[in-house]
Design brief:
two-stranded antiparallel sheet; mainly beta
Amino acid sequence: VRRCGLPTDQRPYRPHLTLARGAKPAPDLRPLVAALQDFAGRPWPATDLRLVRSLLGAGPGRTALHETLSAWPLTGRAPH
């Protein structure tokens, strides 16, 4: 994004996958984190890359609503 000259946040980018959100006050999730520490899961093929917007509280029961803004197929070939 920076190389394209678009404005960005100055904070470091931290890619992540949100697995769960806790209610407030936040419960102690450390035992769950410890239990999953060595979890590796199975490999899975990624077929596309999606830009997704999360709208917290906009889904059913005030859950998050995830909206795909754009998607690009992954071909397994390096760009030219």
